[in-house]
Amino acid sequence: MLSCLVGAGLLARFGTPWTRAAAALLVLLSFAQVFVFRRRDAKDFADVRRTIRRIVLPVDRGLGERALRAAALAQQVRVNPSVGSLELAQLHFERQLQRVPLAAVEQHALKRARSLRVAGFALVFLTGIACARDPGRIGEGLDVLFARHGLAPVNMVWLDLGRVTVQPPAYLHVPDRAIFPGLGSAEAQGSAIAVRGVPLAQGRRLVLSDGTREVPFVDDGSGGVVARYVLNGNAELRVAARFGTVLIRESEVIALEAVPDAAPEVALEGAPSRADLRDFDRRELRYEATDDHGLREIDLVLRAGGREDRRPLTRLDGEVKLERGAYAIESSDPFLRRTFLPVEVSIEARDDDATAGVKWGKSAAITLVPVPVGEPEAARYQALVAVRDVLTDLLASELTPEPGGTDTDLRKADARRTRAVATQLRGVLEQRFAGLTLAPGLKAFLGGQARVLERALPTPASAMRRTEDVLLAVDAALRGLGNRDAGAVSKHLGDAAEEAAEGAKQALESERRDAGLKRLAQALAVLRPGAGHLLVLGPIGRDVGSVAQGEIRRIERARDAGNLLATELAARHLAARLRRPSPSFSSAGGGGVESGAGSQGDSNGKPSDADKKFDELVGELERLAEEHQQELDRVDHNLADAEKSVDLDDLKQEAAQHAAALRDKIAPLPQFSDNPNSARAGAALGREHAESMAQSMARLSLKDAVESGRHARSELSEAAKRAGGSLFDSLDDAALAVARAELDRDLAWVEQSLARAQKSAAEKAQAGLQDSSGRERGLADRAANLSGRGNHGEIALPQDLADALGKAEGLMRDAAKELGAGHGEQGLALQRDAQRLLEQTNSGQSGSGESDGKDQSPSPSPKDSSNSKGKQMRTDADVPRAEAGRADDFRRRVLDGLSKQTSGRLSDAVRRYAEGLLQ
Amino acid sequence: MKRAWFGFACAAACAAVLGFDASAHAVDFGFGNPVERVENAITEIDTARATELLEHAHSDSPGMTLERARLAVYLGECDRAEAILSNPALTESREGASLAELAKSCARATAAGFVMEDKERGIWMRLQDDSDRALAPFIFEVAAQARDTVSKEVGIDLPRPLRIDLVRDLFSLSSVSGLPLKAAETTGTLAVARWGRVIMLSPRAPVQGYPWQDTLAHEITHLLVTRATRDFAPLWMQEGLAKRFEVRWRPPRPFDKPDWADTGARNAALDGRSVGIDKLGPSIAMLPTPEAAGIAFAEVTSFMHFLIDQNGEPALRLLFADLRGNGAAGPDAALLSVTGYGLSEWNARWQRFLRQPVKPPPDQATHAAPAPRAQADAGRRVRLADLLLLRGHGRESATEVEPLLSTLPRVPQVRERVAAGLYAAGDDTGAEHALGTVAEIDALYGPWFALAGRGFKRRGQLADAEPAFTFGLSADPYADEVACEGYRRAPSGSAGGAVTEPPLPTRPAWLELCKAARIVPRD
Fold first, then answer.
1. What was the pLDDT predicted at A916?
2. B327-343 pLDDT per residue, tens
3. Strand partners, A284
4. Which end of chain B has fewer beta carbons closer than 10 Å to its terminal beta carbon, N or C?
5. B-contacting residues in A 536-575 (Cβ below 8 Å)
6. d(CA B313, CA B320)
7. Do A596 and B211 touch (CB under 8 A)?
8. Cα B519 to Cα A882: distance, rounded to the nearest angstrom
9. CB A153 within 8 A of CB A143
10. B65-79, B160-174, B310-324: which range is least confident on average?
11. Alpha-carbon distance A498 to A490, whole Å?
């Protein structure tokens, strides 16, 4: 039986269902045979005939059969006495038994006992061998035999556990560490758990199991084994041995808690909130992003409908766990300028989780609600319509004056009303409409009309004619503005219609239906008021706006009927139509030809061509400025060429002597000083300038020498004043005096030499300057003509531009005189002043640009300049803003700085810029 | 061969004489190619028969599927046509690709259109812009009258319902009809008869409306001719007949010029600007300029007048029948068989007719003097008058434009402005005096007729008022004065103090039209 158990154990150890079943059968058989043999013995020895068959028949078959017959007879007589005498039958049976040879029986028994003993020994021997080779195998087998659900009932020890180490994911940059298996541990998700040890028995297939997943142990090359398990979730790890489908585990558990890498948390100051883009100028987005392991990137994300703009703000090394920053978003941002849907502004940060994939953390959003499409344009248009209305009322009052008043009273009343209208017109020119102003050209045109209105005229008829002119001019400007704005607004609404179509298309997909319907509703909420604003914007706006309104009703009808395909189709048609903001019906010939003669249109000519005349005037001014610049350049080149042609070789030696003397005399002066306000510092600076002067003299660069000399004289003079003020500021007064004397001498010589050279140059340039003088006079005449047209016609320039043009004309005439007299430098200076004034008069044409009065398109965001490779100019400096009341201070400081630049090639440009800044 | 055609023509003529409308009751013996039979039924706008044929067709060949799509377009179901044509196998052919493109653009322009139907009259109309529905009763009336009158004259009937698509702008007209937008803009196309429907521009689209009633009749005539000839009528015949019949559905009106076509063609021939009836290209709407299109219309109309005058109207019916049977190569042969002369001979005879000297009709002699040229400041005064009237300065508006009455007395726009100003100022008598009579103007101008109707009504001349309002309606139905029976909306923000709202029309249809006109006020 023991052998059977051993055999069963060895068989069951294979772990397959068949071997386990066979082993179980073997064990059962081993137990069953004991009972079977015992029962057979009991039965055999309880029945005399079975006893005879078992003992006598194998020894003497004949005798056994006789004995069996005798026993049967005795049995028969006992049952039926009529068969014969019971005593005789019994006697017969006994005699047969007495004849059995006991020695033979005994001999047979001994023989059998010997065979069984041999077999027993053989089994014991085999069992002994099996046990001696690896006694644990029998126990393992029996453990496997009794396994349930793949797990053996008795745990075993497989490994002399050496060390359990944890290797966190590489992106965390955390070193490996050892843990105590029995104590449990919380580790980062994705960590590699390495279990090392020495196997207690060879030949077992050891694994590290968490109950569902197994990692095999492999040879670690130093006599032990190692298993690496990646921790993706909470786990209880055990060392186990695998036998077929059965696992025998160790009792010891390595309990590990997997700590997932959390998404970054981002806080945005002031979010969630809503802001109206109408009042929005600039906002600082202050954010704070945190992560449990480290941040990799922080982005500014702008979302509007289906559009998204993601701008990286910071790229980090993945180890920073807390990052704070700020980003200023402005209303001029291209995304905000283009948007027509509410924009969700949020900050998003991502970590570096390479294991579970990158995770983004998102802040709450600040929602920027855009100005309804077309609203600023409509407001601007209506403001001008109001001006046109008061002009119309003024004209009506002039056409039918109130009866009863004297001519003087009527004229006074009319002048009062006219001034009021001009004031109202000027007020509109300075107005802002949700960030929108009038374009400079249109502003200049209308400003000119305000001037025309204020002209004193001798008779009521001429005043009325003037009012008519101005009214028609404003009407023409209004019409042009309306048509241009209608085109721009229509195109913008086309994008909203496209968005509606995309929303409807998205809603057709059942899983994105709600999001699609939301997009559609948002786009329609933009389209409806937008079409209403379009209606206001002149004839084209009215036409396209009414088309849009009809089409929006069609889209809504389809949507309300649940026909999203029709909704999409109608929206696409509207988008295409709005992107082509042309009149509903336009014909090259002005009328239909299909039938009938068509309605006769009002082909009575254009009511006013004031805007055209103004544009012509502006165009001529531009050409004048351009030609004057060319003339100025010509004079400049002429003078430069003349200067170059002057021979200064005879001065070379003398200049070298002066330079050497100067260098010699300034050598004792200090080279530097710790105190910048000291006499030594002044002397050091003076020395530098004097060095520069000496250098220029040696190169015969007389102009530069004079300039450096003057600076040096000024600094040395300042140093002389400060000398003796402090004990710690010692200066050699004698050396300073010597240096100053030498400097004065050298400077006088250079100035004289320069004057001679200039005189010589002027003589050489004389012929060219004469020609330039004539041309300059011609340009001055043209300026006078334009000035007259800008002051006394149907059109007018605004006062400031007219003044500038008048001054420019005067300067040009002066310049012509100077040039004619051969005073090139003086003439050139006057020309430059005149040019500056001419450029100021360039207002642009009345109908210039599609984006009338819109804030200038901003440069790309500095943060968004991924291609700039760091070479882009920083533009994120804190510029004082108007609302802080510091703009004037800032402007003044800039001007102060600019005013110090009094020389150099760019000095005129700097001056013009500074004057522009002043305005 | 010629004899056979002649025999067929005689049979057709007999049928026409006996009142048997061969076109309307085409006998289909079931012979021939099934696709061709469906195609013919669709071309003849017999959509019911085409539907029946397709229902019983057991073929799913590309040709049959293409016809199914074409029928959907004829029925105005462009979205269905687009779905059918989404099969790439169909769009491989040039015809399939172009039909698919049309179906796509048409589906976009007509999806969720506002459909109205006058079942009694058999008119179906789809409005792109539902604000045009106020005009629907007037359109139904005109369409039915024009269809019935022209049908009777040419001896062909149109199946019910007659389908009309009223689109809002040229962009949509192009999308629904397939006519290139540039061509439509160049020639100023107002309506197209295509795909078995009339596709017409809303009178709201042109700034001052257009004579939509005659245009509608013109296009209905195209449909009738297409049906009668199975679309084998040459372009000169199509356009000539359409121009001939566009005014015959109604009684004559002021400024109808019966001889305009002959005059126009004659002048073009004399000036060397003639286009030529056989050089019209694929469509008059695709001629390079509106002037060329105008001359072409005059020439084809004059030619058709001449042809019918010479041969009589019954010959026209014979010509239709012959063309229908002759197929694409038939116009010349059909003319020859019906009239004994081919196209070139008729062209030569017509040109000889044009060269004959013309004596002006006696009633035009008084108007022979050319209208004086607009004086230089006419545009200026008109605009100032408009601005003043918009602000409620009626008297001043009239004062501003009144001087033009002496220089431009026959321009209705000038008279209408003076009258409108005086009406606004409460001077009704002065207004009616300034307005003058029809004899004193030389063009159809809707607002003028509306004010004239208002005057007639005020004076109790209701019999004269009604035609005046109708003439106004025919020219510019969405003009404020026209739609509201001679009254403009009160100026908004007027400086004139309290404003009294003008009376609204009492007839329901006109009241609706008045409201629709004021949805989008004109400047």
1. 58
2. 766 788 888 888 888 88
3. A328
4. N
5. 538-539, 542-543, 545-547, 549-551, 553-555, 557-558, 561, 563, 565-567, 569-570, 572-573
6. 11
7. yes
8. 44
9. yes
10. B310-324
11. 12
Identify whether the C-beta of residue A195 lies closer than 8 Å to the C-beta of residue A161. Answer: yes
For residue A243, what are the β-bridge partners? A246
How far, rounded to the nearest angstrom, does the alpha carbon of residue A711 sit from its chain's CA centroid? 52
Which CA distances in Å does B291 have to A6, B188, B287? 117, 11, 9
**A232-242: per-residue pLDDT in tens?**
889 999 999 99
Kindly report, residue by residue over B68-78, the tens digit of the pLDDT: 999 999 999 99
At residue A792, what are phi and psi to the nearest 5 degrees?
-130, 25
Contact of B335 with B319, CB cutoff 8 Å:
yes
What confidence tens digit (pLDDT) does each residue in B202-230 have? 999 998 899 999 999 999 999 999 999 99
Instruction: Give the pLDDT band of residue B277 (cuts 50, 70, 90).
Output: confident
User: What does the alpha-carbon distance between residue A574 and residue B131 come to, in Å, rounded to a whole number?
Assistant: 16
Burial A357-368 (b: 16+ CB within 10 A, else e): eebebbbebbbb
Distance, CA of B237 to CA of A761 (rounded, Å): 87
Strands (E), B158-221: 162-167, 191-194, 197-201
In whole angstroms, give the CA distance from residue B142 to residue B137: 9
* Residue with more model confidence, B293 or B464: B464
Helix ranges (DSSP H) in A322-439: 334-338, 375-399, 407-430
Residue B7 reports pLDDT greater than 50: no
Task: Please tell me whether the peptide bond between B161 and the residue prior to it is cis, using omega within 30 degrees of 0.
Answer: yes
- Eight-class DSSP state of A255: E
A224 contact partners, CB below 8 Å, separation of at least 6: A162, A196, A197, A198, A199
Taking an 8 Å cut-off on Cβ atoms, the answer to whether B130 and A607 are in contact is no
User: Residue A206 corresponds to which amino acid?
Assistant: L
- In chain A, which residues have pLDDT < 70? 587-606, 724-729, 792-794, 843-919
pLDDT band at B189 (very low <50, low <70, confident <90, very high): confident
Q: How far is A580 from chain B (nearest CA, A)?
A: 9
Distance from CA of A782 to the nearest CA of B (A): 30
- Which tokens go with A524? 């329609």
Alpha carbons within 13 A on the beta-carbon side of B232: 21
| H or E segment to which residue A330 belongs | strand A307-330
Q: CB within 8 A of A636, min separation 6: which ones?
A: A828
Q: How many CB atoms lie within 10 A of CB B341?
A: 17
Find out whether B443 and B424 touch, Cβ atoms under 8 Å. no
Look at A593 and B217 and tell me if their CB atoms are within 8 Å.
no
pLDDT tens-digit readout, A437-486: 888 888 888 998 898 888 877 788 888 889 998 999 999 899 989 999 99
A682's tokens: 């002044």
Relative to beta strand A282-304, strand A225-230 is unpaired
Sequence-ordered alpha helix ranges (H) in A512-596 = 513-536, 538-560, 564-578
Angstrom distance (rounded) from CA A786 to CA A353: 71
Paired tokens of B128: 């792109």
> Are A576 and A584 a contacting pair, CB within 8 Å?
no
How large is the ipTM? 0.89
Q: Which residue type is seen at B257?
A: K
Dig out the tokens for A398 from the structure. 């002039």
Comparing CA positions, the residue from A587, A497, A581 lying closest to residue A540 is A581
- Res A847: pLDDT: 62
Query: How does DSSP classify residue A151?
Result: B
Question: A272: cis peptide before it, omega within 30°?
Answer: yes
Nearest-angstrom CA–CA distance, B37 and B46: 11
Beta strands per DSSP E along B10-135: 114-118, 123-127
Q: Which residue of B has its CA nearest to A586?
A: B185
Average predicted confidence (pLDDT) for chain B: 86
